[in-house]
Prior knowledge:
The protein has helices at residues 17-29, 67-73, 131-142, 154-162, 184-195, 215-218, 266-272, 283-288, 324-327, 375-394, 467-476, 494-498, and strands at 5-13, 35-39, 43-52, 58-66, 77-81, 84-88, 93-96, 101-109, 113-115, 125-126, 146-150, 167-171, 209-211, 251-255, 260-265, 298-302, 307-310, 312-315, 319-321, 334-335, 338-341, 352-354, 359-361, 408-413, 416-422, 433-440, 444-451, 454-461. By secondary structure, it is an alpha/beta fold. The protein has three domains: 5-112 and 322-404, FAD/NAD(P)-binding domain, CATH 3.50.50; 115-209 and 240-315, FAD/NAD(P)-binding domain (3-Layer(bba) Sandwich), CATH 3.50.50.60; 423-498, Enolase-like, domain 1. Strands 1, 2, 5, 6, 7, 8 and 22 form a seven-stranded mixed beta sheet that branches. Strand 7 (93-96) and strand 8 (101-109) form a beta hairpin. The protein is globular, with a radius of gyration of 24 Å. It starts with a strand and ends with a helix. The model is unreliable at 201-226 (pLDDT under 50). The chain binds flavin-adenine dinucleotide and 1,4-dihydronicotinamide adenine dinucleotide (NAI). 1,4-dihydronicotinamide adenine dinucleotide binds at residues 118, 150-156, 158, 173, 179-180, 259, 316-319, 372-374, 411. This is Pyridine nucleotide-disulfide oxidoreductase domain-containing protein 1. Residues 411-477 form the NADH-rubredoxin oxidoreductase C-terminal domain. Belongs to the class-I pyridine nucleotide-disulfide oxidoreductase family. PYROXD1 subfamily. Keywords: FAD, Flavoprotein, Oxidoreductase.
Amino acid sequence: MEEREQRYEFIIVGGGIAGVTCAQQLASQFPSDVVLLLSASRLIKAVTNFKQVSKTLEKFDIEEQSASVFQESYPNILVIESTVTELNTAQHRVTAENGKEYVYGQLCICAGARPKLIQQNNPYVLGIRDTDTAKEFQKRLSDARRVIVVGNGGIALELVYEIEGCEVIWAIKDKDIGNTFFDPGAAQFLLPSLMGEKPDVLLQCKRTKFTTEGGDQQMDSSTTNRTLGSALGPDWHEGMKLKGTRQVFHKVHIEYQCEVDQLYLKDDFLKLKKTAIAFPENKEEEKISKPDNDLWPVYICLTNGKIYGCDFIVSATGVVPNIEPFVKDATLEVIGSGIKVDDHMRTTTTDVYAAGDICTTSWQPSPHWQQMRLWTQARQMGWYAAKCMTADRQGESIDMDFCFELFAHITKFFNYKVVLLGKYNGQDLGTDQELMVRCTSGQEYVKVVMQRGKMMGAVLIGDTDLEETFENLILNQMDLSAYGEDLLNPGIDIEDYFD
Ligand SMILES: Cc1cc2nc3c(=O)[nH]c(=O)nc-3n(C[C@H](O)[C@H](O)[C@H](O)COP(=O)(O)OP(=O)(O)OC[C@H]3O[C@@H](n4cnc5c(N)ncnc54)[C@H](O)[C@@H]3O)c2cc1C
Ligand SMILES: NC(=O)C1=CN([C@@H]2O[C@H](COP(=O)(O)OP(=O)(O)OC[C@H]3O[C@@H](n4cnc5c(N)ncnc54)[C@H](O)[C@@H]3O)[C@@H](O)[C@H]2O)C=CC1
């Protein structure tokens, strides 16, 4: 008979980047121990081809793998597809959905996050997180004439640019697009790319690549937990047809500074005897708000008084960490919405660590770092958590990893390479910050955030090739006052000065 309770020196919960990286690191540190990886998702995310591009910028590929393929490369990692439902820290025990119990020596919780939707249980409101939700979105889009995208962060920016053959109404709370990544200047620089025609040739830039090789065949909806898959990431839409039913090529209308007030299903809306607005085809129609003669399955009333009908709504409104099974145990403190971790990725209870999207950091950060729920940070935290677990187990001390010195993120928006460094939006810098901007329309946007002559952050859009130099300048905090505006003078080869 199979034992109901098994003991493992190391148990990791979560098969996303954070959990898998943590398990890999522990498995190589302790080759004679078995590392147990419990994951609600059938496929796990493995980091491959990792390259340190510069001191803090990194590049890697991600592969979705089945447990059996992954275990071939890591024979001392045991992957079990199972959702953890309870944690009992007093007994060092986790309980899985089938009632099976696992006792740990050390535990690292890497259960990620899920979309924070504007309305739960509404069949017309979709969030995008994992392969299942991305496929559901693609399926709905293939029959759609109009979608409404709510939110102004990473997912919304990607969708409004990629969707074709369908009218897109983009409702944002802010005055400008892309508020989680950009300042108003950068938003203005990017806007023409959204409203104009897309380039035929897509930019190939150095960035992480998402591969779903074999994912299709391996998907089995009966065993895949719909709400708890691993997060997608860079290039998730590559090779995916994001096309609606209309002949229109790329058509986006933005409603600024508004939120969702009410949602109505068609029958309820018709009873209200209110008028919805047609998709504004031009500036003139924006002013006069032509009534919409089409009928739609769902209607959205915005706080600016406008009402639009659509086929479905994408709620790209941030994430909420999957903490519920773990915080039933009262010893785990929560800050913000995540599990609180200290500078050694320890939670508030002994032998329990957390990493990735599920955690909220509570250490005093370096002046140029902030937590953001991103792929790179999930990998870094998973790796560092394993180092800290090892050190604690061996009674050694360990310094905070260098990757937490500087926030560094490479990505792509609207087919431009985007690099964000340090306090790129002047986060928490107070009032004595200064901005310097260099912008060539359609080509590049360079912004640096300066404080008392020192560089604190930068936004680099386009192929600026400035990331390494600026990374050094932020890290070494050299006094740059003497250079004044020349710092961004394109006629001066800045790298010669500072490399
Ligand atoms: C559409 C999309 C695009 C993105 N694009 C980018 C990008 O371009 N760049 C970037 O840096 N970041 C991007 N991100 C963010 C990035 O993907 C995440 O920050 C990162 O993957 C989080 O990794 P994680 O391991 O912490 O969590 P997840 O990937 O969410 O993994 C959590 C794991 O835990 C499992 N799990 C959950 N609950 C339980 C439980 N109770 N028991 C057992 N297992 C459980 C899940 O099945 C999953 O395997 C994107 C995210 C999305 C959704
Ligand atoms: N290229 C990249 O780096 C990408 C990163 N991601 C990451 O994936 C995760 C999920 O992405 P997003 O959902 O876009 O989250 P996000 O955190 O990037 O953005 C959320 C947006 O929703 C807005 N919002 C929140 N509540 C709202 C409400 N009730 N009504 C209207 N707007 C509201 C916020 O103001 C913000 O603009 C994030 O961690 C994000 O950083 C996602 C896509 C691309």
